[in-house]
Amino acid sequence: MRIKSHKDFGSGLMFTAVGIAFAWGATNYTIGEGARMGPGYFPLMLGILMAILGLAITFTSLVVETEDGDRIGAIAWKPLGFIIGSNVLFGVLLAGIPRLGIPAFGLIVAIYGLTFVAAMAGDEFKAREVAVLATVLAIGSYLAFVVLLKLQFPVWPWFIG
């Protein structure tokens, strides 16, 4: 059988692999049942659904004809680097790295760092628009995680709070 869409084939395999990994990892927790779900129930079901979706996409890539074979292009290193870097920066700013003497800067600074660095992954960067987005995300995250869910983690930098 010939691959008719390389992009769909690759993404289908990725979905299948990640789904299997999630489902397998969930078996380390108590699964429970539908009426009394354990901590492993949701990741198990999500992993199974993701694997099924991946298999469907992979099957479609072998059956549905595309014009040019839908080849996978070159890896976009710049966006990949900025997106991964922004997530790493978020973690470092949120919690700090005590071993290296880097203090926690808190949720608000971490969200601004994440948003500004991730925005550099695109073709154009508009600081005013990114600042508005970061402010909306910071307020929404504060309300969701600190006010509503009452999670305990630093919100402001160590020198403020």
Can you offer a commentary on this structure?
The chain is mainly α. It folds into 2 domains: 6-63; 77-148, no CATH class. 61% of the residues lie in helices and 0% in strands. It is built from 5 helices and no strands. The chain has helices at 6-26, 41-63, 77-95, 106-119, 127-148. The chain starts with 5 loop residues before the first helix and ends in a 13-residue tail after the last helix. The mean pLDDT is 91. Keywords: Membrane, Transmembrane, Transmembrane helix. This is Tripartite tricarboxylate transporter TctB family protein. Pfam families: TctB. The chain crosses the membrane at residues 12-32, 44-64, 76-96, 102-121, 130-149.
Key phrases:
161 residues, 5 helices, 61% helix, mainly alpha
A few lines on this structure:
With 161 residues, this protein is mainly alpha-helical. Helices cover 61% and strands 0% of the residues.
